[in-house]
Amino acid sequence: MTGSPAYTPPLISAVVIGRNEGTRLLTCLASLQPQIHRLIYVDSGSSDGSTKAALALGVEVVELDMARPFTAARARNAGLDRLQGEQGFVQLVDGDCEVDASWIPQAAAFLQHHPEVAVVCGRRRERFPEASIYNQLCDSEWDTPIGEARACGGDALMRLEALRAVAGYRADLIAGEEPEMCLRLRRKGWKIWRIDAEMTLHDAQMTRFGQWWKRSRRAGYAFAQGAALHGASPDRHWVTETRRALLWGGALPLALLLSTVAITPWALLAAVIYPLQLARLTPRMGLRPACFSLLGKFAECAGVAEYFWDRLRGKNRKILEYK
Question: Which is it for the CA torsion 287, 288, 293, 295, positive or negative?
Answer without folding.
Answer: positive
